[in-house]
Amino acid sequence: MNDRADAALASVDPVTLEVVRNKLEGIAGEMQSTLLHSAFSPIVKEGMDCSAALFTADGQTIAQATAIPIHLATMIPALAAVLAKYPVRAMAEGDVYILNDPYAGGTHLPDITLFIPVFADGAVVGFSVTTVHHQDMGGMAPGSIPTNATEIYQEGLRIPPLKYMDAGRVNETLHEMLRLNIRLSDTFLGDLNAQLSACKVGARRLVELCRTYGAGLVTRIFALLLDRSEKMTRAALRGLPEGTYRYVDWLDNDGVDLERRVRIEVAATVRDGTIHFDLTGSSPQVRGPINCVPSGAQAAAYYAVRALTDALIPTNGGCFRPVTLTLPEGSIVNPQAPAAVNARTATIKRICGAMIGAFADAVPARVPAASAGLSVMLAFGGRHADGRPFILSELVCGGTGASAHADGVDCLQTDGSNSMNQPIEALCLDAPIRIRRFGLHPDSGGAGRQRGGLGVVREYEFLADDIRLTFRGERHFTAARGSAGGADGAMSVAVIHRADGRVEPISKCVTTVARGDRLVLQTAGGAGYGPARERARDALAADVANGKVSGAAAQDDYGSSHGGKP
Amino acid sequence: MLSHNGPIRHVGKRALASIGIDIGGTFTDVVAIDDDGTQRIAKLPSTRADPSAAVRTALARLLPQWGIDADRVTCFAHGTTVATNAVLERKGARLGLLATAGFEDVLEIGRQNRRQIYELLLKPETPAFLAPGARRRGVVEAVGPDGSVLTPLDPDSLGAAVDALVAAGVDAIAICFLYAFANPVHERAAADFIRARHPHLTVSLSSEVDPAFREYERTVVTAFDAYVKAGLDRYLGAMERDLAAAGVGAPLQIMQSRGGVCGARVARQRPIRLFLSGPAAGVVGARAAGRSAGHEDLITVDIGGTSCDIALIARGAPVIRPEGLLDGFRIRVPMVDVNSIGAGGGSIAWIDAGGGLRVGPQSAGAEPGPACYGRGGEEATVTDASIVLGYLDPQYFAGGTLRLDPDLAARAIERRVARPLGLSLREAALGIHRVLNAQMAEGIRLMSISRGMDPRRFSLMPFGGGGALHATALARELGMTTVVVPRHPGVLCAAGLLSAEIEHEAAAGFLARLDAADPEQILAACARLAAECASRMRDEGVAGDAAATTCYADVCYVGQAHYLEVPLAVHAPQDMLATLYDDFCARYDQVHGHHTRAPARFVNLRVVQRAPNRARQPAAAPRPGAAGANPAPRRARGILLAGVAEPMRAVVVDRDGLAPGDTLAGPAIVEQSDTTTLIEPGWSGRVAPDLSLILTRQP
């Protein structure tokens, strides 16, 4: 903290500071709640794929509500792009700014960010901002996340930083362009309105706050809160041993060139209360849509810092000041337009895993072995026997890595995402699909003193012809890596058993399945921690009794002669 | 033991009485109301190892002290945490689970999302401890979404599965087959098989416990049901014997989590309905207290040592939600919508690594408790701040049962907060209150806004030991203008037991689109559910025509999973579906601020029957002779308030001496054995006819 901040601290009493901080977090929460409740599409309502935040006038996050970490701080580059084009001095009350272009600070096209400048005493004191993953943004495929896109032009409509409202008047040109280019535009505009309402809630309450405490004091408090979180984050980072730590992991492929693995390389350097993530060595950008614009690696870095430091540090832009990144141009983590980017989530998950995994040896008590780190995406589309169309999708995950303290957890979302699975009873109700089996995948957790969490087995039988199946798996070719002598987790395996007896292993594909075909999916397990031979015998016996480890694996992987009981 | 009021005065006449006993974590609260409406209250320390010991004490000592004859007790209602505690302490049955073959792991896999998103060291999110893999077995059978049998139940696989569970030493079995809510035939066959061969085993069927779709949620509820059933049965049986031994003839009634009571006979069949009944009783008590004071729209805040429980009562009805949390696990049981935030009297004030003041979420709890308790606690807590500020009288805490040490309070705040921040003791103590109040106010705002309700339209009702101390500050933060302090805020849960109606609820999954549903089918399903409720009513002696029946449908838009409960107009079947759709859209609009005319579908049908209980209600007017006869003696002491440099003289009044019509102007303090009310400057108080204290903000 600098002298200016110390002087300012002396002039604001610490109680008011904390009271205002609580109110700011409350405002972000109220914005998010408004968003969740007034949005219509399931992706917001059920998937909670949205977030809300307040920013300072110079673009630093002062409070944010997120339901999924992947959104953490992704609005920062977006607001920077708006501010670069529209100077604060030129903004007027009633202005609303909009953006979704990944190459101008956005994430992927379905994520639209809306910004309202908040005025007090005639000047901008901050911004009220929301991001929502919209159900559709146009482009070659419904949902605007085409797995076979090779250019962003196929992914939907790009919106550069623009005014959506100018001093209270809607930008008709933009509005009509959006209406015409987006599928189900009523739902889209409904969700955009929800976003606008939430931004207005944030703006109204920030104005009230300025009225109560004075805009000057509120602005000073912003600066102090940022400095305070920065100071706490630096102190927590000083608690990590200094040095450079590396981790390399792989994505299976980009969905287009199936035989080419995609490398994610991280070198994390901790020095004097700062942290630098260098992703040099990661693959060049790819043809398929798993390219990840810089906001993705940034969100991963901020997630890693939040996870590695103290959970009680209030999250704001100050936490991110000690964090820097090197993202080589033209690489998978900083692609150049017009690379396709819609499926970047898998990449962010792998970057998160690598950033955390880099610290496995530095802080072994805090960092678990690698998790499966996947969200297998399945989408089914076709017609029921009576001709009604159906479309549905689901995300299935794998096991988490074991830690020095405990076994990994079976089938649980980790790192950047946090989606729920589809109940079997819901899925079979809505589509001519029967789930034949859904269980833990025995022996998939990496062996170790602490065992990795298990992946799952899910078997689908198709009850109609001409069902379009989109499958985007991960960890089919590289395993989650063990720590401290623990074994790797098992890899994913997915096989289509055709009714005529043909067997087709898949990892990423778009294909057609027919009545009688079956898809058997086994997701990857988390890795083990510590040597397997050190596993407590009663824990191993319980694993065998509970069916998590087979008798054979108990002998082969753990060297047990007692494990043979069924 | 802390008890209120002397024996009943009318000597020679044997009064009838109703008794409510609520067992909480720290205290067991007892309320008795006799047939002229006189209310008596007492607080006893809870006896965790044997919770019913406190009940026996109440029967043996309080009844004679209050002049109540056991055989004249006509209503005995009980709130218990015994089902919840069995889960928290992992002391339920050794449970086995039967599932459809291929789906044995549903209980352990869950929904794959996590609650702590930044935590690296993850813990299981599912209650697999109820039945680990070795005690889960599959049975070959299949029922389709429409209830048709796809694969008949295979008797050999059933026999082998049950044998394996019995060999694993289980004493209870939960059965949850896929789509059993659409056709329970296989679950029933399995249950019959088990009961015939192993009559000592407790059995719970998902098609009876929670016949609704989504297999994980149904499995969890069914497993918890079987897990606590036998223990609850033993507990209730022992209490019935205690009551009989004490000569109490009234049937034992238990509070359910939806806020109605039911007879012990029904309760032991549906133990899952008793989880979290304590908070429900408090809200039901608040509703009764609000109603008697003429306030039907309330936000209640129950502030205890470690947490603040917030609930909403809209137009006299507590908001109900379809699921809740038990020990961190989501369970699908309808319950009064109570939200807890980690802020209370024991919340610890501390300085973070950035040099900022923070309050909570850590609490000093009851042991060692706040520094002023003198039990070795050194942390500065909210209660310590209340002592320093003069709000609490150290000599009269909890009615004088606990002496507090003001020097220890001051020392803790000085050392832990004032000195590190360079504040005066007064500024530090005020600061702790302001921060806590800001946290609680944001919690209340979020809770009400996310349910589509504007807090400014509501009155605030504080209860619990700490609520009334913070009420005017919270109301001010939230723009609320009225605070209703009930006569006995510390025993509102026990009072709630006696104000609750007898209630039975039955629900079943009903999966059809509104535009394709058959009204005849809906009516038939509702009739079946109503018959189920009526049979339970008969079980506890309520005649068929004494109960009011309401039918509801859980409805959602096609494509969404969030559903809303909407009343179903079964008396007008020809318009039923059209009315339901309009009502659903209107309700959606109220909660979410907008609606569309998109297609909607049924999720569940539900029938609720309610009947008035036998319990007496407290008299609206106080006993003759008390009102106005002894004007409350008024003292004064200096208290510290925000924005005022010098201590202000606050009138201090004894609540027991207040009579209807009495008025007070802030700053004032009202003391009573179970709570202390702080009336800030700018607020005035008036005693209502029912002895509630109504605080209003001066414009």
Low-confidence stretches of chain A: 1-8
Cross-sheet strand order for the largest sheet of chain A: 2-1-5-4-3-6-7
Q: Could you name the ranges of chain B where pLDDT drops below 50 across 5 or more consecutive residues?
A: 7-12, 621-630
For the secondary structure, the number of strands of chain A is: 20
Number of helices of chain A: 12
How would you sum up the global shape of chain A? globular
State the distance separating the first and last CA atoms of chain A. 62 Å
What proportion of the residues of chain A is helical, as a percent range? 25-40%
Tell me the structural class of chain B. alpha+beta
Helix-strand makeup class of chain A: alpha+beta
Gap between N and C termini of chain B: 43 Å
Q: Largest inter-chain interface?
A: A-B, 84 and 68 residues
Biggest sheet of chain A, in brief? 7 strands, antiparallel
Rg of Cα set of chain A = 25 Å
Give the helix level of chain B as a range of percent: 25-40%
Shape of chain B: globular
Number of strands of chain B: 37
How much beta of chain B, percentage-wise? 25-35%
The overall pLDDT average of chain B reads: 89
Oligomer type: heterodimer
Give a verbal description of the structure.
The complex is a heterodimer of chains A (566) and B (699). With 566 residues, chain A is α+β, with helices and mostly antiparallel strands. Chain A has two domains: 3-233, no CATH class; 368-535, no CATH class. Chain A is 29% helix and 23% strand. Chain A has a seven-stranded antiparallel beta sheet, with helices on both faces. In chain A, strands 14-15-20-17-18 form a five-stranded antiparallel beta sheet, with helices on one face. Chain A is globular. The termini of chain A are far apart. Mean pLDDT of chain A is 92; it is low at 1-8. Chain B is of the alpha+beta class. Among the domains of chain B are: 2-86 and 233-274, Nucleotidyltransferase, domain 5 (2-Layer Sandwich), CATH 3.30.420.40; 92-227; 502-611, 2-Layer Sandwich (Dna Ligase, domain 1), CATH 3.30.1490; 634-697, no CATH class. Residues 7-12 and 621-630 of chain B have low confidence and may be disordered.
